[in-house]
Amino acid sequence: MKIQDLHSAFLAHPSISTDTRKIKENDIFFALKGDNFNGNTYAQKALDNGASLVIIDEEKYLIDDRTILVKDVLTTLQQLANFHRRQSKAQVISLTGSNGKTTTKELINAVLRKTYRTIATKGNLNNHIGVPLTLLTIQPDTEIAIVEMGANHLKEIEFLCEIAEPDFGYITNFGKAHLEGFGGIEGVKKGKSELYDYLISHKKSIFLNADDPIQKDKLSTYTKKFGFSSEDSKYYTIKLLEAQPFVNLIVENINIETNLIGAYNFPNCCAAIIMAKYFNVELSEIKKALEEYTPDNNRSQILDNNGHYIILDAYNANPSSMKVALENFNSLKKDRKILILGDMFELGESAKEEHQNISDLATSLNFEQVLLVGENFYATNSTAVRLKSFEELKVYLVNKPTQTKSSFLIKGSRGMALERVLDLI
């Protein structure tokens, strides 16, 4: 089946599924493969559960004319997404970066949907499967699609750009994330900059943080750029007033008080503002959108747990995000500050050094107590309480409950699942 024919079938039933447990009536099921599963084996189940078509790439699973045999299911999904994107009139904004991608994506969507019909990446479906699935949610009336792109190795962003063909792009920052796959910080800069490279080569527009010297230098001679800065008057001016704990900023003499903690969220807000200004969203609507937005899903959430003040930032972690989170927590005007930090993953050969650096920083600051959890933190030379696993942390907290009302920062990589701590405090 040609892609245009598959696209016609998709338009008749514009809903994709890759999980037979979540199939809705008339979904098109793509039988993807993974290290531990083969979607082809679920072809009959997909049809039984209501799928209108099943896309397979192993001939022995052909059932009837509702099963479509292709050379490779994943490639077909990506080609369909690109074809669909090309048929749409929607403008595509892509963003990537080491930290803050998902929060920035949510903020951009919040401000733009005040004026436009938008779609945006759900959760963090930002890889070679998630980006196609996002593009396939573009509706006939969609005006702007906000597509988050994640990567843990070189050429990944380049590949995602070929699928999404963005009209605009933004990079949040270049930090110490996925060092193992990128081969170090210079690899991170090169890999994330593949978005800029694509946009420049196709003469597309770029949004930039002009206070970031890496971005400013990279785009010094490029003309199709729209930047923000708190320092350089050549760019749109936005000033941070405070972050105690919430980001409070001023733009065009309008004060905006957000529900986002930490100065590290200031540029994320600025990115949303500059894009909204570019698309002529009224400043009053921008203010309303930013002030209405509340983070969730373990991303810098502020909680009250049995009288304790808790910053739950357990969605993910890397050395760069850890550093700014610790510095922000240290700056807060709170009593009895307690750190619970979990291992940072995908650091490769840098893991030992980076965990030691964070351990040193944590113990150098004025915290009541520092708890380090995970095999990497356990191996550090530190005066902090080091615990090899979450189970050891659980035993520690049960035997030594925090009686006095305290302030906690809980942060670690997703695999540490440190949100489980909430039941123990």
Automatic annotation (TrEMBL):
<dbReference type="GO" id="GO:0008766">
    <property type="term" value="F:UDP-N-acetylmuramoylalanyl-D-glutamyl-2,6-diaminopimelate-D-alanyl-D-alanine ligase activity"/>
</dbReference>
<keyword id="KW-0131">Cell cycle</keyword>
<comment type="similarity">
    <text>Belongs to the MurCDEF family. MurF subfamily.</text>
</comment>
<feature type="domain" description="Mur ligase central">
    <location>
        <begin position="96"/>
        <end position="276"/>
    </location>
</feature>
<keyword id="KW-0547">Nucleotide-binding</keyword>
<keyword id="KW-0963">Cytoplasm</keyword>
<dbReference type="InterPro" id="IPR035911">
    <property type="entry name" value="MurE/MurF_N"/>
</dbReference>
<keyword id="KW-0573">Peptidoglycan synthesis</keyword>
<protein>
    <recommendedName>
        <fullName>UDP-N-acetylmuramoyl-tripeptide--D-alanyl-D-alanine ligase</fullName>
        <ecNumber>6.3.2.10</ecNumber>
    </recommendedName>
</protein>
<keyword id="KW-0961">Cell wall biogenesis/degradation</keyword>
<dbReference type="GO" id="GO:0008360">
    <property type="term" value="P:regulation of cell shape"/>
</dbReference>
<dbReference type="InterPro" id="IPR013221">
    <property type="entry name" value="Mur_ligase_cen"/>
</dbReference>
<dbReference type="InterPro" id="IPR051046">
    <property type="entry name" value="MurCDEF_CellWall_CoF430Synth"/>
</dbReference>
<dbReference type="Pfam" id="PF02875">
    <property type="entry name" value="Mur_ligase_C"/>
</dbReference>
<dbReference type="GO" id="GO:0005524">
    <property type="term" value="F:ATP binding"/>
</dbReference>
<feature type="domain" description="Mur ligase N-terminal catalytic">
    <location>
        <begin position="16"/>
        <end position="82"/>
    </location>
</feature>
<dbReference type="GO" id="GO:0047480">
    <property type="term" value="F:UDP-N-acetylmuramoyl-tripeptide-D-alanyl-D-alanine ligase activity"/>
</dbReference>
<dbReference type="GO" id="GO:0005737">
    <property type="term" value="C:cytoplasm"/>
</dbReference>
<dbReference type="GO" id="GO:0009252">
    <property type="term" value="P:peptidoglycan biosynthetic process"/>
</dbReference>
<comment type="pathway">
    <text>Cell wall biogenesis; peptidoglycan biosynthesis.</text>
</comment>
<dbReference type="InterPro" id="IPR005863">
    <property type="entry name" value="UDP-N-AcMur_synth"/>
</dbReference>
<dbReference type="InterPro" id="IPR036615">
    <property type="entry name" value="Mur_ligase_C_dom_sf"/>
</dbReference>
<dbReference type="InterPro" id="IPR004101">
    <property type="entry name" value="Mur_ligase_C"/>
</dbReference>
<dbReference type="Pfam" id="PF01225">
    <property type="entry name" value="Mur_ligase"/>
</dbReference>
<keyword id="KW-0133">Cell shape</keyword>
<dbReference type="InterPro" id="IPR000713">
    <property type="entry name" value="Mur_ligase_N"/>
</dbReference>
<feature type="binding site">
    <location>
        <begin position="97"/>
        <end position="103"/>
    </location>
    <ligand>
        <name>ATP</name>
    </ligand>
</feature>
<feature type="domain" description="Mur ligase C-terminal">
    <location>
        <begin position="299"/>
        <end position="379"/>
    </location>
</feature>
<dbReference type="GO" id="GO:0071555">
    <property type="term" value="P:cell wall organization"/>
</dbReference>
<dbReference type="Pfam" id="PF08245">
    <property type="entry name" value="Mur_ligase_M"/>
</dbReference>
<comment type="function">
    <text>Involved in cell wall formation. Catalyzes the final step in the synthesis of UDP-N-acetylmuramoyl-pentapeptide, the precursor of murein.</text>
</comment>
<keyword id="KW-0436">Ligase</keyword>
<dbReference type="InterPro" id="IPR036565">
    <property type="entry name" value="Mur-like_cat_sf"/>
</dbReference>
<dbReference type="GO" id="GO:0051301">
    <property type="term" value="P:cell division"/>
</dbReference>
<keyword id="KW-0132">Cell division</keyword>
<keyword id="KW-0067">ATP-binding</keyword>
